[in-house]
Amino acid sequence: MSAQQHDRSLSRREVLRHGVTAAAGGAAVLGRGTAFGQAPAIQTHTQTGRRFRAFVSPPGGRPRGIETVTLRAIQPHQVVIRTEAAQACYTIVNLLAPPAVAPAAAAANAPPSAPIAGHGGVGIVEAIGSAVRRVQVGDRVIVPVTANCGQCWNCLHGRGDFCTAGAGRPNAPVANMADGTPVTGTLGGFAELMIAWEEQTVPVATSVPPVELSLLSCVTTTGLGLAMKRIPVEPGSDVLVLGAGPLGLSAVQGARIQGAAQIIVVEPVPYRRDLAMKLGATTVLDPNAFALADLQARIQELCTPKTLNRAFAGARGGTYGPMFVLEAVGGDLFPPKVPAGPDPTGIQSLQLAWNVCPSGGTIRTCGVGFPPGATITIPAGQWSNSGRTHLPGNFAGVNTFRDLPQFARLIERGQFDARSLVGQTFPPDGAREALQVAADRTSITGVLTFT
Ligand SMILES: [Zn+2]
Ligand SMILES: [Zn+2]
């Protein structure tokens, strides 16, 4: 890297640390200690040995918790990010369960390590490896759950939501615990530093507060993807959203942004139904108030026109239903401390999604946590030729490098209400508490803030 490039990186960092006025006095900034010819941190791994706190899962069944760990030398394609905020996803609340001892055979294949917990987050780039081109020191970046390399088979074929960059990068240790145990985890979030591969970073230039941006690392991005990406909701259409957690409520807003005429939400928790109405739902239904067949009938009734329901006048000539069904339920990992739905496995919601969708409609699913071996039943003739389109995938057609800046812009312009999806915030050492509110579903989200 040339001295000129280093100069620019320093100045970006100084803008963030000391404000525009301080950075504008360029000579004074440079005079504060980084002289030309002196090795820049971004090139020579002088961050090596830096100590930071991280929520880790040590091997051997040792208790999970916050440890002070020591950064190793970063690799040419790695980025060191000072974490600003990170959300505790429901997907990782299993971290609250007692740690399991890895089977000996598995331990033999991979040396014991302590992964850093988290599902990504948002922060400021503090150092980059010598080969990094996508981001610079001082950039604000989102580290999403799914990378986007632009070069793997899936990225090249328009399926960046299944980017396989992770398969091309080793799960190499990024730090050491005090006793020397290697620490892994290039996604992180529950740590003062995230050490991510370049492909996992998405720079965003925005005034949106980090606590709101942190939702874009996972849940909100998936919800917006369900409604807006690959098979976007048509303006004027009927949309059914199953589940009004942070993901479903993001899908509700995505459908509203797309111009849906009707957004029907099925959700057992009263405060989440209220949030759904605030954020764009037109009808909310409590699944505990209906038998499954009656719930399906009610949704279909809501989607059936009351007038002009005649053949050759635009009518379907068959059963009506939502032309877009967006599933955001999944299985319960723990019993919630709020009203539970009628089916803790989440399977019923998948079945309902198929049954209620008419021919020609689209079903998007992204739930996780179903019991092993669980199945749904689809009549062969329907699967073969009923005309439903099913697009599954837990990053919902999103190309993170392309789409996250767009989503940040929707928040910035007030089109997407992220503030209402920030339930409770916690200090950096509150990871366990943030996971607990997610597990209990007592708050719409739990977010760690580091600033
Ligand atoms: Zn997540
Ligand atoms: Zn890729």
Radius of gyration: 24 Å
Low-pLDDT stretches: 1-44
Question: What molecules are bound to this protein?
Answer: zinc ion
Give the total of beta strands. Answer: 18
How can the largest sheet be summarized? 7 strands, mixed
N-C termini distance: 31 Å
- Beta-strand percentage? 15-25%
Mean of the pLDDT scores?
Answer: 89
Number of helices: 15
User: Helicity level, as a percent range?
Assistant: 25-40%
Q: Give the structural class.
A: alpha/beta
General shape = globular
Any overview of this molecule?
- With 451 residues, this protein is of the alpha/beta class.
- It contains 15 helices and 18 strands.
- Strands 3, 5, 6, 9, 10, 17 and 18 form a seven-stranded mixed β-sheet that branches.
- Helix 9 runs parallel beside helix 10 (270-279).
- The longest helix is centred in the N-terminal third of the chain and has 22 residues, at 3-24.
- The two termini are 31 Å apart.
- The relative contact order is 0.14.
- The model is unreliable at 1-44 (pLDDT under 50).
- Bound molecules: zinc ion (2 copies).
Give the SSE layout.
Layout: H1 3-24, H2 26-30, H3 41-44, E1 51-56, E2 65-71, E3 78-87, H4 104-109, E4 114-115, E5 121-128, E6 140-143, H5 153-156, H6 165-168, E7 175-176, E8 182-184, E9 193-197, E10 202-203, H7 210-213, H8 219-228, E11 238-242, H9 246-258, E12 262-266, H10 270-279, E13 283-285, H11 292-302, E14 324-327, H12 347-356, E15 362-365, H13 380-385, E16 389-392, H14 400-412, E17 424-426, H15 431-440, E18 446-449
Parallel strand pairs: 4-8, 11-12, 11-14, 12-13, 14-15, 15-16, 17-18
Antiparallel strand pairs: 1-2, 2-7, 3-5, 3-9, 3-18, 5-6, 6-10, 7-8
